[in-house]
Amino acid sequence: MAEKSNEAPLLVIDDDSSILRLLDKFLTKKGHNVVVASNAEDAMEILKQNQNIGAILSDLKMPGKDGDEMVKDIRGMGSDIPVYIMTGFPENDKINRLNSYGVTEIVLKPLDLQSLEEKLYFKKNND
């Protein structure tokens, strides 16, 4: 079992509670300090209250505000926080919009957890 990290928290957002629990458990076991939200609105509140979030891993399609709208709002706050967007539906217009907002990476579902953790680890250790 990995020790709890002192790193800046990783904010994980997904409306599917089973995926959210899986990511929380897996990433925590890998040593990440994980904060979870089940929708974009809650995530934005967490970001407003916690300025030291180190990165965001979010689903694209969610009820209410989608992941691309959330990223636009985050960039509108002046934040350049690394954002990873997960999607099983890579629509070209949304992908292009996300890229224009400076998304770090699009992660395709179904998720390869080991590959995802390697991407997060590499980014964290090369900033």
Automatic annotation (TrEMBL):
Pfam families from the UniProt entry: Response_reg (PF00072)
Residue ranges constituting the Response regulatory domain according to the UniProt record: 9-124
Alphabetized Gene3D superfamilies for the sequence: 3.40.50.2300
Origin superkingdom: Archaea
SUPFAM superfamilies the record matches: CheY-like
InterPro entries documented for this protein: Bact_response_regulator, CheY-like_superfamily, Sig_transdc_resp-reg_receiver
Keywords: Phosphoprotein
Protein name from the UniProt record: Regulator of RpoS
Annotated organism of origin: Candidatus Lokiarchaeum ossiferum
Lineage: Archaea, Promethearchaeati, Promethearchaeota, Promethearchaeia, Promethearchaeales
